[in-house]
Design a protein that fits this description.
Strand order of the largest sheet: 1-7-6-5-4-3-2
Strand content: 25-35%
Distance between the termini: 56 Å
Largest sheet: 7 strands, antiparallel
CATH superfamily: START domain
CATH architecture: 2-Layer Sandwich
Shape: globular
Low-confidence stretches: none
CATH topology: Alpha-D-Glucose-1,6-Bisphosphate, Chain A, domain 4
Number of helices: 5
Number of strands: 7
Structural class: alpha+beta
Radius of gyration: 16 Å
Order of helices and strands: EHHEEEEEEHHH
Number of domains: 1
Mean pLDDT: 92
CATH class: Alpha Beta
């Protein structure tokens, strides 16, 4: 079996510099994807991303970073590493086409296919959330809300609506 490549893509109606920055700067990324990072993505750097709502973390090594063009990382280190690549293509002065690919999944055929499908849908959520945040300033919370039963207990209390 040829190893599958998970892929998601989206046009974001913002200049390429703004869109690229949104994926390397955790101060922006945390508005639409992970909740915390130990640092900005830099060539050769190592950071840890956290999704506090799920009690999850992953170590991320930056393999390549080409300003406004490409980001390549290895994540889920060291137990289950795979590669993730973002490419950025200007479509106009105020439009950027982003493609995310994830490959190098491990396990038996069923585990590999499941991981690829989960990755493709997950990155589709991320790109849609990035689009909403960058274009309209709206935090969709789709990453948080796609699996409410898996939320960490301390996070579930945040979902309780308040009346007032």
């Amino acid at each position: 079996m040829t190893s599958p490549v998970a892929k998601a893509q989206m046009l974001i109606r913002k200049p390429i510099g703004s869109v690229f920055e949104a994926f390397v700067n955790p101060g922006v990324t945390s508005h639409f994807w992970f909740s915390n990072s130990t640092g900005t993505l830099e060539p050769g750097g190592l950071v840890r991303w956290s999704w506090e709502m799920y009690g999850l973390t992953t170590d991320v090594e930056v393999k390549a970073l080409e300003q406004n063009k490409r980001i390549l990382v290895e994540w889920n280190r060291p137990s289950n590493p795979s590669l993730v690549e973002w490419t950025f293509e200007p479509k106009a002065a105020d439009r950027t086409f982003v493609v995310v690919k994830n490959w190098g999944f491990h396990g038996d055929t069923e585990q590999i296919v499941s991981a690829a499908l989960d990755s493709a849908s997950g990155f589709a959520f991320v790109l849609a959330a990035a689009k909403a945040y960058l274009e309209y300033g709206v935090e969709l919370r789709v990453v948080e809300d796609h699996a409410p039963d898996a939320l960490a207990e301390n996070w579930k209390t945040r979902l309780t609506p308040t009346v007032g």
